[in-house]
Design goal:
InterPro entries: CFP-6_PH (IPR019692). The chain has 157 residues and is of the alpha+beta class. It has two domains: 49 residues; 75 residues, PH-domain like. The protein is 40% helix and 18% strand. The strands form two sheets. It has a four-stranded antiparallel beta sheet with strand order 1-2-3-4, with no helix packed on it. Strands 5-6-7 form a three-stranded antiparallel beta sheet. A hairpin with a 4-residue loop joins strand 3 and strand 4. The longest helix is centred in the N-terminal third of the chain and has 24 residues. The radius of gyration is 21 Å and the shape is elongated.
């Protein structure tokens, strides 16, 4: 049975969320590409030079590197900040900078609304993970409600 969202407690910090399906597919394909290219480099006819064989293996490693970029996203929350690691860029945010997190039905990943008026995609939670993604977003929103409010400035004394 699911607990009522209002009764749930935020998860203990630090916590990291990673997409499961994309990581499995990305790293499995990366391994397959590297193994295939290395095997091809070994079994090529003798008229292929060593540089050609090394180039073929290197091409497999480059392809695996590209898949690593797709599989690396994560969302990490600590006591003081939130780190959003997407494919290329990493964003380090303080809790009060994040106003809300939402993932409308049909969207691939959630977005967070930032205090400066911009939005940021959070690829560390992906909708194709189903209930796991829904729970991760709920947990993140609980943490956001618990930690996201900036303290009111105190008047000088």
């Amino acid at each position: 049975m699911d607990e009522d969202a209002s009764e749930r407690q935020p998860p203990p910090l630090p916590v990291t969320w990673r997409p499961r399906n994309m990581r499995l597919v990305g790293y499995a394909l990366a391994a397959l590409i590297v193994l295939t290219m290395v095997a091809l480099a070994v079994v090529l006819p003798d008229d292929w030079r060593l540089s050609d064989r090394l180039g073929l293996a290197a091409l497999g490693v480059v392809g695996a590197g590209g898949l690593h970029l797709l599989a690396r996203p994560r969302l990490q929350a600590t006591e003081t900040r939130v780190t959003v690691v997407n494919c290329i860029r990493t964003h380090v945010l303080e809790w009060p900078e994040i106003l809300d997190a939402r993932m409308p039905i049909g969207e691939p990943w959630p977005t967070v609304d930032l205090a400066d008026g911009s939005t940021l995609g959070v690829m560390g939670i992906q909708s194709n993970d189903g209930d796991r993604a829904r729970r991760a977003l709920e947990d993140f929103r609980l943490l956001l409600r618990a930690r996201g409010e900036a303290e009111e400035p105190r008047p000088p004394q």
